[in-house]
Amino acid sequence: MSNEVIRYGIIGCGGIAHTHAESLMQIKGAKLIGVSGCSAQEPLGFAQKYGIKSFDSTELLLKSQEIDAVTICTPSGFHAAIAINAAENKKHAIIEKPLSLTAKSAKQVVEAFKRNKVTGSVISQLRFSEEIRKAKKLIADKKLGDIIMTNLTMKYFRSQEYYDAGNWRGTWKLDGGGAMMNQGIHGIDMLLFLIGETKNVYGYIRTLTHNIEVEDNAVALVEFKNGSLGTITASTSIVPAKNKTIEVHGTKGTILIEEERIRYLHIKGEKEYIADDIEQGDSATSNIIKASGHIKQLEDFTQSLIEGKPPFVSLEDGMRAVNLITSVYASSKTNRIYNKKEE
Q1: In angstroms, how far is the first alpha carbon of the chain from the final one?
Q2: Which helix (DSSP H) or strand (DSSP E) does residue 20 occupy?
Q3: 343 residues of the chain, pLDDT tens digit each
Q4: 206 sits in which H/E element
Q5: How far is CA 159 from CA 1, 142, 214, 242, 318, in A?
Q6: Which CATH number applies to 6-125+291-313: 3.30.230.10, 1.10.340.30, 3.80.10.10, 3.40.50.720?
Q7: What is residue 209's predicted lDDT score, i.e. its pLDDT?
Q8: Integer Cα distance of 262 and 267 in angstroms
Q9: What are the structural domain ranges in the chain?
């Protein structure tokens, strides 16, 4: 696009939509124009708070000539359909995680944006952390040698009241999954960002401590395309909750990442690095998200539209995370290894 200002609309009025609104208002080259919700009445208060237009329907927002791009902040089960509708109306879009709830619908979203020649991205704000990018470079530059094993651990807590607060939470139809698809997808995206694509997956999911449809506990064994192995542990049942960690072991060293910081780094022949204690992150016990990561990603997306270049996070990146999670679900259901070729 040649525009120096990208005019945004927000679709959805829940908690994460406020993070998007507050972020967009801090970004040079972005202008928040309006919002839509599930009804004509729902977005009125949201629009008044931010001094923007309230659209009576999402369809009207998507057809508006005042809007260049949208951020999709609805319950997860609506993401794919709205994203495809946005693409067909020639709107660029950045979609909250997850991109969709199935591998099939994720692929349909990617194809819709390619077909309509518009730009899409999915929120993966951890990729914008300086220390995560440093870890990525260390691994890519073979500072740890050849990767042998990676362990992703996400031991969170959510109360029954958390699930009861929204009738879509904890349902297969609108949440698409639990500890992995909802709470764990950012950790899984970080795993794929650091190590690369997977080849085979074997997983178990269980609902052990909550009255919900989806899993509150999951474990998976992963074989990556690079030949290394990994484990994924995800839970919303742990008391007390723990910070997310990802530990990567190579033939020349180890790196431990806690939340968005490097906690420990050992490289053969070099001085060990051990960070100070890290405070508990938001993801462990809360669904409240700090805006800093969203600001960086929405800024990158805005600049990509202005400059006509791809955003740092692609729709394909979002699709890979969905594919891995749904592979775990399929493996648990069939009690067999799920191969990449079966997606």
Answers
A1: 34
A2: helix 15-24
A3: 546 899 999 999 999 999 999 999 999 999 999 999 988 898 999 999 999 999 999 999 999 999 999 999 999 999 999 999 999 999 999 999 999 999 999 999 999 999 999 999 999 999 999 999 999 999 999 999 999 999 999 999 999 999 999 899 999 999 999 999 999 999 999 999 999 999 999 999 999 999 999 999 999 999 999 999 999 999 999 999 999 999 999 999 999 999 999 999 999 999 999 998 777 766 677 666 678 999 999 999 999 999 999 999 999 999 999 999 999 999 999 999 998 766 5
A4: strand 198-206
A5: 45, 42, 14, 15, 27
A6: 3.40.50.720
A7: 98
A8: 13
A9: 6-125+291-313, 127-286+322-342
- Measure the CA–CA gap between 264 and 20, rounded to whole angstroms: 32
89 token code pair: 């109306």
- Which residue, among 212, 273, 283, has the nearest Cα to 244 in the 3D structure? 283
What Rg, from alpha-carbon coordinates, does the chain have?
20
Tokens of 7: 């005019």
Q: What class, spelled out in words, does domain 127-286+322-342 have in CATH?
A: alpha beta
Contacts of the segment 327-332: beta carbons below 8 A, 24+ positions apart: 327/103, 327/198, 327/201, 327/203, 328/180, 328/201, 328/203, 328/205, 328/218, 328/220, 328/232, 329/177, 329/180, 329/203, 329/205, 331/201, 331/202, 331/203, 331/220, 332/203, 332/204, 332/205, 332/218
The structure tokens listed for 171 are: 């349902």
User: CA neighbours within 13 Å on the CB side: how many for 309?
Assistant: 6
Q: Mind giving me the DSSP string for 28-89? A: TTEEEEEEE-SSSSTTHHHHHHHT-EEPS-HHHHHH-TT-SEEEE-S-GGGHHHHHHHHHHT
One-letter amino acid for residue 176 of the chain:
G
Strand partners, 170: none
Which residue carries 């909750």 as its tokens?
241
Q: Is-contact 154 234, C-beta < 8 A? A: yes
Residue 266 in 3-state DSSP?
strand
Beta-carbon contacts of residue 259 (< 8 Å; ≥ 6 apart): 243, 244, 278, 281, 283
Provide the token pair at 137: 């470079």
